[in-house]
Amino acid sequence: MKEAQLIKGQLFVLRAMQFVNYGTMVLLVTYFPLYFESMGFTKLQIGAIYSVGPFLSIISNLAVGLISDRTKSLRRILSLMYAAQILALALLLPQKEFGLMAGIMALFYLFQTPMNTLLDTVTLLAADQMKRSFPAIRVFGSLGYASCAVAFGYLLKIYGSDLTIVLALCTIIASLFFSFFMSDFQAKLKKFEFNGLWILLRKRETLTFFVLIMIISVAHRMNEGFLSIAMREIGANDSTIGFASLASSMSEIPMFFLLAKYGHRYRELPLLAVASFMYMIRLGLLSMANEPWMMVVVQTMHCITFAIFYLTALRYLQALIPDEYRSSGQAVFAVVWSGLAGLIAGTLGGGIYDSLGLATVFQTGALFALIGGCGFLFAHFSRRT
After folding, report:
1. For residue 289, which phi and psi values (nearest 5 degrees)?
2. Per-residue pLDDT tens over the stretch 300-350
3. What three-state secondary structure class fits 181?
């Protein structure tokens, strides 16, 4: 009875942390660019601020992953990272000058970029130890993203973009609060050996997986990074942009439940190839959209692109990396998924945007998705021969 209550309590904590964490993410992805735009920053300056995040994520994800696996103190690390983010945003709140704001945002990103990875790590470990499904916990992140996209869009429409940082402070403070009640799911894992991790990462199968993940992530980041700017360019207001985020996050919820129940029946590499080809179609459609409502409709394809791709990639990663290296393996995944791909998407996409326009940005993303999908199919058939 006591164990059942403990599991129930931890499920609530983990689901709440996923919910509020993705409430923060909707602000960072959708509304922070609009906040900086309202401050009078140019697109080049906004792009410079956002390019710092992927670069710093390479350092912070690897450092935090290795420290977490070696010390087995993931719970404390989460709390410290949230506290540092709160301090950075408090410093950002009164600032108006670009140089100072860019520096503070760099500090913020140093502690924020590993958060999705850390939460996925602890959720995967907890789901395994409590005999629960990872997607059934992770889906609360989607619920948080969806509900906050609507609520924050409504609030920002009424009170203006100046409220953006205050809302981010509220969600991160809530995350810090819940982190105090999380159990230590790393305590029972085997001792971390750096040589063992290095051997795993050098395997051809692992290297191929990470390269293909990076290729698809470039396509994903081009959608994520340029969508709100594209919608604003064709006349969308903050509320409509929020509905685009709502459409994507709501669409992935039923897919998470389907994958939790039936996903194990299908091989990972073919599923990843299907999701990649759907990314190609999604970005191709975005390149042709000339009305805000068209972009909102296209975002419903999130369920057959991101939802399938991300959960299947994590399932495949679990098969490649043992639990004692879970944080480090997830950190490498995050470096590829967010860091390297984010740098490529930001710099390449920004250059293409300035010279050829947004349609070409999305077309380039579609090309990356096509290459990645073919790569996953090739990897699948190579394993069978």
Report:
1. -70, 135
2. 999 899 889 988 998 888 888 776 677 777 778 887 887 778 778 878 888
3. coil
Neighbours of 310 (CB within 10 A): 23
CA distances, 230 to each of 296, 307, 331 (Å): 12, 23, 31
Closest residue by Cα to residue 364 from 187, 227, 222: 222
Token pair 């140089």 is at which residue? 99
| 292's tokens | 């805000």
Amino acid at 197: L
Helix (H) / strand (E) element for 63: namely: helix 43-71
pLDDT in the model for residue 277: 96
Phi-psi sector, 357: left (phi>0), alpha (psi -120 to 50), beta: left
Angstrom distances, CA of residue 327 to CA of 107, 255, 318: 22, 26, 11
Task: Tell me the one-letter amino acid at 35.
Answer: Y
Closest CA to 318 of 357, 265, 264, 278: 264
The CATH code belonging to domain 2-384 is 1.20.1250.20
Cβ distance 207 to 201 under 8 Å? yes
State the burial class of residue 255 (Cβ atoms within 10 Å of its Cβ: 0-12, 13-18, 19+): buried
pTM score: 0.80
Cα(105)–Cα(35) distance, rounded to whole angstroms?
A: 13
241, 34 in Cβ contact below 8 A?
yes
Here the tokens at position 368 are 């990356």
For residue 121, give the amino acid letter: T
Q: Which candidate, 231, 171, 176, places its Cα nearest to that of 30?
A: 231
Q: What is the dihedral of CA 296, 300, 301, 302, to 10 degrees?
A: 100
